[in-house]
Amino acid sequence: MQKSCSLTLIAAAILFAQAEPGRAADYDPPMIIEEAPLVPVEVGSGWYLRGDVSYSVNKSVYDVDTLADDIDNNRIGGSVGVGHHFTDLLRADINVAYIAGDDYDDGVIAAERRVWSGMVNGYLDLGTFVGLTPYVGAGAGLLYTSHEISGSDPFFTDAFSSIDRQYEFAYALNAGVSYQMTNNLSVDVGYQYLNSPGTKYVDVDRGTVEEGVDFHQVKMGLRYDLW
């Protein structure tokens, strides 16, 4: 009887040993799935704001000599705009600028001229050297000029007033250099040649109407990147 029990235990042990590898093979460990990290999307990446002050180096077409000291030729202007970096080298912006103005008033006749522009400019940055990035560019847009004259006839006391407005094609050539002060802020110093072949003006010396005005502007401003 004891021998039979021993044989039974041995048989049971052999069957258990044979069945155990099968059980181990049927066991599947739990799968662990790691979630991919969330990557933030930079909504404002590549866009920038800019603001500039300018000075027109060349003389105004209305910077004329008169016997009266009544003419004020303002050559200081400014502009604001928004732009975008397409690559590390190529960028473009849209800006609106006040270019210059002229005023005349002798107590009888008053006249003024104002010049504005709206331009789209493209730039090619030529690489960065010791923190400085030179660039060249060109642009196209519109030049807006307004001429207003008013006064009264000193003999007949008849008042008169006249306003002339022009919107003409203009193009620009740009060159300059920028320096990155912080991760987002750069200072920009440049030159712009602005020409409008179809804009008319009065040649005071000849008393004729002429076409074509241009401006040689020195500009200084700031660009702020919206990263």
UniProtKB/TrEMBL annotation:
InterPro entries assigned to the protein according to its UniProt record, in alphabetical order: Beta-barrel_OMP, OMP/PagP_B-barrel
Pfam families registered for this protein in UniProt: OMP_b-brl
Highest taxon of the lineage: Bacteria
Keyword match Iron-sulfur: no
Domain (Outer membrane protein beta-barrel): residue spans on this chain: 45-224
Keywords: Signal
Signal peptide annotation: 1-24
Claim: Signal is one of the keywords in the record: yes
The protein's name: Outer membrane protein beta-barrel domain-containing protein
Species in which this protein is naturally found: Chelativorans sp. (strain BNC1)
